[in-house]
């Protein structure tokens, strides 16, 4: 029925904010309201409101004869039963407008009005727009204390509850008919504009997704085959998303995470072996440019060179295989050890004595020698420049310092 803000206002809140005592209307008030109702609807019928009409009245007023098929009185709280919708699905499909005649000066009637809104809003899908028609008494019989004026806070609360509009001023006859028809047209135009906006937003979203798909296909199919052949084609047998397994292997706990991907522990399936390796998982979603694709291709080529039997080095991690899932590039690598050199040095100088792990001079010399030898091998033998040598990238295992190849490496030749 309406697209309302997230705030919800209960009927009790509306009732309290009105500041009314909730006393029943006097017989004289009902008599004036009945006479004023017949005067307002004299010479009118359902067609004067463009048909498809349903009227609810929160006071026990006798319905006009011309509206007996669409008039429903909700004058007691028991008239609205919890779980029983006031409108059926067929009613909702055939109706164009709901009008609620309610006396804004009666706390009980405003509460019943709120119950009507809640019942229709929660129990009926695609309900027609609902308009409030304030109805108190004829202008000549109203009290002179401005009680006939609709309070701004009451209007705000009812709009939050789900009312689509208010027919102000208590018009009668043709003025009432024209006011309602005008609000119906405004509501229809607003609904049509919102529908068009939603449709355009949906179309733009779909078109953006289409362009994104085209860009992804161009980058990872055409450009990859032309400029980055070291990256294998997409293997659709691999599940999209973060991988949980590889052919013959089970991916275990996460060991670390960096700017370009995450590293997981990898074990062979039972019956195949018990080797422990790691996988580095890089999301392809973050790779948008050809330059980045070529960097990955260069990295794989360098890692393959360093993994070859002729050019490999015992202190440099080897690349075993590269996989390409619909969403990730996965590198299966040699396991370098559980701890990097940076963390080892922090333990060496830890403030707490129980956490200190000293390094002997011989151990320091051995680690330094292995690091220098690995860098010399990169530069002199493989002719690859390591541009980001840090203690974070040196793994400790069984007394060795193993340097993994980084993502960015630049070739140079003598």
UniProtKB/TrEMBL annotation:
<dbReference type="InterPro" id="IPR011009">
    <property type="entry name" value="Kinase-like_dom_sf"/>
</dbReference>
<feature type="domain" description="Protein kinase">
    <location>
        <begin position="249"/>
        <end position="414"/>
    </location>
</feature>
<keyword id="KW-0808">Transferase</keyword>
<keyword id="KW-0547">Nucleotide-binding</keyword>
<protein>
    <recommendedName>
        <fullName>non-specific serine/threonine protein kinase</fullName>
        <ecNumber>2.7.11.1</ecNumber>
    </recommendedName>
</protein>
<keyword id="KW-0723">Serine/threonine-protein kinase</keyword>
<keyword id="KW-0067">ATP-binding</keyword>
<dbReference type="InterPro" id="IPR000719">
    <property type="entry name" value="Prot_kinase_dom"/>
</dbReference>
<dbReference type="Pfam" id="PF00069">
    <property type="entry name" value="Pkinase"/>
</dbReference>
<keyword id="KW-0418">Kinase</keyword>
<feature type="region of interest" description="Disordered">
    <location>
        <begin position="1"/>
        <end position="28"/>
    </location>
</feature>
